[in-house]
Amino acid sequence: MSQMGDDAAPGLTVRRHWIARLKPYLAQVLCLALGLLVLSNLGLWLRVHALERGPSVAVLGVRELTQGYLHRVATSEVTPEEAALRAKAFLAVAQDEIGRMEAAKGGLVLARECVLGGETRDLTAELERTVERKLAAATGGLSEHVGPIRPGSSAVGARP
Question: Residue ranges of the domains in the chain?
Answer without folding.
Answer: 1-52, 57-146
